[in-house]
Design a protein that fits this description.
592 residues, alpha/beta, 7-stranded mixed beta sheet, 36 strands
């Protein structure tokens, strides 16, 4: 289903002379080169997964068009045929003044490989926007582009501008609300040059080291842990050639960005552009999928919201943030709660309660069903008396009467859950058997045949897939109860922690309590060590050390105001997202 062009998404005007020389181009990576959405992405590419009933890539393309981009090159690798078929049959393929074309590869295993291939095609002819097809934004590019071009005129080594946004991580989980690990950036507050980039996953020791030459060369450096990388980059042509010259560059951040920051020979520079009132976020894991879905429903991403990007299925916005398609059969005794989306052709039975959830098209939901905080995709059948809390249910799934999904469950395509069967929390269930090898998150999302997985042809997505996976059983399996069909994947060693951190389900109270205890122990060790960074995060040369003493009182006032705002934001989020009271109390207490 393609997105329709609406008047609300007006194009941004640029300098006519610039446009005459170089139309604004964008590279959209339609492959995440990661495994975080398995088992779903073994059958369908991530960019085509529904986000509030609209494919993810439609949000990205709609934003690029509204931001004044003229030409988009969509790089396809995993499940490339599905992506190409979707685009060619969508309205994006024939939009006036907005060109979308595809570049296909069958052997690229990283973003670095993708950019090297694009460089060889000689299709980029100036500054370009680099983005992945799982990014949602409504920001204007005008100012960021202008800053980038002005810097380039003064300094040819200023080859990249990264878009960032404030997003204070939870003091308990040390993750952002998107479920992404705490990120540390060192930025020159005057020039906005990025000097250091480190995420917590790469810095497990809890200490950061900065090259002393950075402090010597920069009169002032601010170390941030409250910035979110939006994964929207404005790049010069040199970025592509650098990937071609350095085959070690695979990952965009871990290899390329960090590689440039430590390279003191070539002298290339990366700068930041911070947005404040606009929205920009990337869907990196199931928790960010949940968070961004809620943001869309609550219209933080306007004009890219369901009733505008709904294609041919018109949605009506109702009270309390509920959306309902025109052709929905709803029983009189059914209760539809706040921030809920009901897709076209769905039937809902007597006594069923649905809240804070997204229901796709063509679903049949029986009587006395409870659905809370869940994402039900298209053509799903849920029989009487089922219970679903904080789960993802893909196309064609059947849940037989009385079945229960505990928090964090993901049911891949066409799975059948047996009658009265309880699927354990955080279970990943698929018709496909679990690959024998666990690929790292930085490897190709859909591995080659050596890892036990293959690409599913798009023409078989909704049909019989057994013939494409020899030796795999598709009859009833005892793992999912009587009449159940599918396999419950086991969690690899060390994966338990990742499951609840990155799940659509709220973090359990016992996990939060343990994290608080661990945090207190860590703080005690740091206090004993005595090497604690100033609360402001700013590093200055010795000659400026007296400034901290003069500003102590002012910093205290700022901290108090910031604390009040954090408490208020935490409380409002708890109300909007229906967070349990004990979880909310733990979060507020941790802010102290």
């Amino acid at each position: 289903m393609g997105a329709q062009k609406k008047g609300a998404t007006a194009r941004v005007s640029e300098d006519p002379e610039e446009l005459a020389r170089h139309p604004l181009q964008a590279i959209l990576l339609a492959d995440s080169f990661a495994t975080k959405f398995r088992p779903i992405t073994l059958e369908r590419p991530k960019v085509l997964l529904p986000l509030v009933n609209i494919p993810m890539i439609d949000y990205t393309l709609a934003w690029l068009e509204s931001a004044g981009v003229d030409e988009v090159f969509v790089f396809c690798c995993a499940h490339s045929k599905q992506v190409i078929d979707y685009l060619e049959s969508s309205e994006w393929w024939s939009q006036p003044n907005f060109s979308v074309s595809t570049i296909e590869s069958h052997n690229s295993i990283s973003a670095g490989d993708a950019l090297r291939l694009i460089y060889e095609r000689h299709v980029i002819h100036g500054d370009f926007v680099l983005i992945s097809g799982d990014t949602v934004s409504n920001m204007s590019l005008t100012r960021a582009l202008q800053e980038h071009k002005e810097r380039r005129k003064k300094d040819a080594n200023a080859i990249m501008t990264m878009v960032i946004k404030q997003s204070k991580p939870s003091p308990i989980t040390q993750q952002s609300r998107l479920g992404i690990d705490e990120l540390f950036m060192a930025i020159n507050p005057v020039t906005k040059q990025l000097l250091s980039y480190e995420d917590k996953a790469e810095n497990s020791k809890g200490f950061l080291s900065l090259d002393k030459t950075l402090i010597a060369d920069n009169p002032s450096i601010v170390l941030h842990n409250d910035k979110q990388d939006c994964y929207i980059d404005i790049c010069s042509e040199e970025v592509l050639s650098l990937f071609t010259d350095n085959f070690d560059y695979q990952h965009l951040r871990r290899h390329f960005v960090k590689g440039l920051l430590v390279d003191d020979i070539m002298g290339y520079k990366i700068f930041t552009h911070e947005i404040h009132s606009s929205y920009a976020a990337r869907i990196d894991n199931f928790r960010s999928y949940d968070t961004i879905s809620k943001d869309i429903i609550q219209r933080w991403t306007y004009p890219f919201v369901p009733d505008i990007l709904c294609g041919n299925s018109a949605l009506k916005v109702e009270r309390q943030g509920a959306y309902r398609a025109a052709e929905v059969t709803l029983s009189c005794s059914a209760q539809i709660g706040p921030f809920t989306v009901i897709g076209q052709g769905t039937t809902i039975g007597n006594g069923t309660k649905i809240s804070h959830s997204v229901i796709g098209e063509g679903c049949t939901i029986g009587s006395n069903v409870t659905i809370e905080g869940s994402y039900i995709w298209n053509n799903v059948t849920i029989e009487n008396g089922c219970q679903l809390r904080h789960a993802i249910v893909c196309d064609g799934v059947i849940m037989k009467s009385g079945a229960v999904l505990e928090p964090g469950v993901v049911l891949a395509f066409k799975v059948v859950v047996g009658q009265q069967f309880v699927v354990p929390a955080y279970s990943m269930v698929s018709l496909l058997q679990q690959p024998t090898q666990q690929d790292s998150d930085e490897e190709l999302e859909y591995a080659d045949s050596s890892s036990g997985t293959v690409e599913l042809p798009s023409d078989k997505l909704h049909g019989d897939i057994a013939s494409h996976f020899p030796g795999t059983r598709y009859g009833p399996t005892p793992e999912l109860g009587t009449g159940g069909v599918g396999y419950i994947w086991s969690i690899f060693e060390g994966g338990n922690d990742e499951e609840w951190r990155h799940s659509v389900a709220p973090i359990p109270t016992d996990k939060l309590a343990k994290l608080m205890l661990d945090k207190d122990d860590d703080e005690e060790l740091l206090t004993q060590d005595g090497n604690v960074l100033s609360a402001s995060g700013e590093l200055k040369s010795n000659s400026d050390s007296n400034v901290y003493e003069d500003d102590d009182n002012e910093d205290s006032k700022d901290d108090y105001v910031s604390f009040e705002k954090e408490v208020e934001d935490t409380f409002l989020r708890a109300v909007h997202e229906n967070v349990r009271v004990d979880n909310a109390i733990l979060e507020v207490n941790a802010l102290r």
